[in-house]
Amino acid sequence: MLSSNSKVNDFVVRFANVNGTGSASANFLFTKSIFRMGIPVTPKNIFPSNIQGLPTWYEVRISEKGYLGRRDGVDLMVAMNPQSMAGDVAIVKPGGYFLYDSTKMLHANFIREDINYIGIPLMEMCNREYTDPRQRQLFKNIIYVGALSALFDIEFPVLEKLIAEQFPGKEKLIPPNIKALNMGVDYVKANFKYPLDIHVERRDLIKDSIMIDGNSACGLGAVYGGATVAAWYPITPSTSVVEAFADYASEFRTDKTTGKRNVAIVQAEDELAAIGMVIGANWNGARSFTATSGPGVSLMNEFLGLAYFAEIPAVLVDVQRTGPSTGMPTRTQQSDVMEAAYASHGDTKHVLVFPSTPKECFEMTAEAFDLAEELQTPVIVMTDLDLGMNDHVSPPLVWDDNRTYKRGKVLTAEDLEKMGRFGRYLDVDNDGITYRTYPGTHPTKGSFFTRGTSRDEYAAYTEDGDAYRRNMDRLIKKWNTAKSMVPAPQLYQEKNTRANGVVFFGTSQYAAEEAIELLKQEGIEMDALRIKAFPFNQTVEDFINEHERIFVIEQNRDAQMRSLMMIEFSANPAKLISVLNYDGMPITATNILKQVSQKLLISQEKTTA
Amino acid sequence: MTYVRPKFRHPALPKNELGYTLSQYEGALSTLCAGCGHDSISAGIIQAAFDLNIEPHKLAKLSGIGCSSKTPTYFLSNSHGFNSVHGRMPSVATGANLANRDLTYFGVSGDGDTASIGMGQFVHVIRRNLNMTYIVMNNGCYGLTKGQDSATADVGSKNKSGNVNLFESIDLASLAIELGASFVAQSFSGDKEQLVPLIREAMKHPGFAFINVISPCVTFNNNVGSTKSYDYVREHIEGTGTKDFVPMMKEITTKYAEGTVQGVKMHDGSDLQLHKLANEWNAEDRISAINAVKTAAAKHEILTGLLFIDRNTKDLHDLIKTSDTPLNKLGKDVLCPGNEVLKDINAGLR
Known about the structure:
The complex is a heterodimer. Helices cover about 40% and strands about 20% of the residues of chain A. Chain A is an alpha/beta fold. In chain A, the strands form 4 sheets. Chain A has a 7-stranded mixed β-sheet with strand order 9-8-10-11-13-12-19, sandwiched between helices. In chain A, strands 2-3-1-4-5-6 form a 6-stranded mixed β-sheet. The longest helix of chain A is centred in the first third of the chain and has 20 residues, at about 135-150. Chain B has one domain (about 20-320): Rossmann fold (3-Layer(aba) Sandwich). In chain B, about 30% of the residues lie in helices and about 15% in strands. Chain B has a 9-stranded mixed β-sheet with strand order 2-1-3-4-8-7-11-10-9, with helices on both faces. The longest helix of chain B is centred in the N-terminal third of the chain and has 15 residues, at about 35-50. The chains are: A alpha/beta, B alpha/beta.
């Protein structure tokens, strides 16, 4: 039994709503108020592939310890959707709470002996107060936020301030919202014991952190990284990357007097055209990117192969969702790893970076442009729906103003003038990276033909086997050069146990870190490594070699990252133990803990047998 | 046969206003079949670029995949070229053009590359009115894969294997007019006198300029009763070990006065009816132009010349208001808002 004290700033609230009823902004108001009280908070949108009518959930974890991953079990359910109510009742933890609209009596099927019911006649209150049906709906959401503020002891002035900030220039809207909040507060105060044992207390744990979703951070990263051409095709969950880019670009890239823009954004006819435009723009010396998800990457395979082989920079943000095929478009997964790593036919390999936080979305997207131009190859930013479409507490974004754009090996007219014969694919520096020219540079020197067919060092078409092989080998040399240029992994090695190691990447970070702490409490020490990029840095290979057993945590069925390690440095499959999560929901620490404990037991039994 | 073009040039060769000779607009020697109509079009492109005093390096030439898409190697060797993937040249050209609006963009495609695999991108590059010239070298068949019908082959026409095409052909010129292209022309590879001025006009046009050029395939359209058919030649040659044989042929050329219909004997023996542009319709009126093309088609004639032009057109850059300075010339100072702005953004996210 937990003492009531341990429930302060440590619980999960889930909102069950109907899609399209305006619940999102009310639920965000709730989250933001916890954030403003200095308490770490993580919201997750669990939404359908639908615009209106289907069930949608919003789950908020509040964690004084700063655990930002998802946690299983719901302490308080805000049940606003009769469609999903049976399931919503079932997942409340024993001793937990079920807040519902008591305008109509709750069906006997939804009554459990081991949970507490909080009935508030929301519909009745709204019908009495408002005549406009839309207002009745919207304010119902605000009323339950008010009720929660009393139940959880959320500071009311914090909510008032948030409401005021929400309506700049529309001050008329503020008082009705405050009134609705108060209706909820008053009802709780008149009818229930408050606050509940689960409640919040102000802390100073947020410091200067911000709250932002990964897609916005990627879009902003592209602005800071100097992207001027964006081509895209709408696809969940990546759409808001380019939308954010467009918003920031209209603010920071528009000439206030002429209205002319230092950016071109094209909604393409499909993903093939989107990546084609990106490749054309990069070929011509503009930093260009696209954002898509797994199905889009599938379509882009052909062009990715061209960009790899013809050595054209390109930046692609892959916001992964649940595959295969259309899969679950609004659920998360890390299942494009293999597809992205080896996209296209023939011997191809692509540079991938794996952000874990919005801050890294910002940094890695900006850095991807440097990497793509320095390496003259596509760079894929591997984020996912969980990171991209949910708000996260993140350290503030920082940009070093002394930083310059690394445009890679590009020859100017003066360079060409001074040199002998230009060879586009001539490995002058012996690092596999050759020199390129932009179209229009010099009247008589530096032109070349870009093609997906094989060619010699001077870009002339050839079917000579030796020339082809020389080129393919040079591409591997470039690949090896890339290993020291991509972001290095993060090592967690307080005590080098050399026995058990954990490897994870992307949005598994929070749950993995939490699981490692929980394992430590059980006396199991784990070294850990977070992969940030492919090709793997030498540190990754060393980590695998140094440990007896490696648990590889991934959010896909086929253990794709594990396969990559087996392929790229012949890691022994027997020592790479998979910890997998692929139900479309973000992975939780308890899930990892359970799987690691079980597999550790089996593995130890094998060793002792 | 050597593929090295002699470098020696007569010192008195005529020069254009930039001081370039025609030879400075040439490319590598063609590896297409001798007599291929595509080579005549390449020669037309060279002539047009010379005539227009275009600096070769200020032009980018792009193509897809196929015989026609090989041709950018054979003209303007001082221009950057991009032989992309099948049917996807329009998207690459779009990106390239967005990156640098100061260059001239020249796209070459074929009937397979445009009317089949690339139809989606063709349609959308027209919609966006990208400032480029787009030439389709249209021979009604797939040359590189040896003669399959393409989507522009006429219904009822017989291919090399003797199969009759059952499907309606796609008329790219009338499609382009219907989709809103701002410049649409049609010509014949053997008609240099008409083709060169059309290419010149297309390159000058400040929007999407499309030219559909009928360009006969000497190798795969020579099936009917030809004494140079594979079977016939094999029966008369011994021990060469050559499985494929490409007969040498002379290019088909034609000359006729404006406003007249002329039949041209094709390699396969059929007649191609060419109707040179006469002032029978208003080329600045889209409906009138479509009517003219359709009326000619009903009479099994192919209308050639400038079919439609919208002189007051707005290209993609105008529509999306990109800066006058090419985007690829902008540096960090203009593009990056800097850390002070980022601090404000952070503040707004707390």
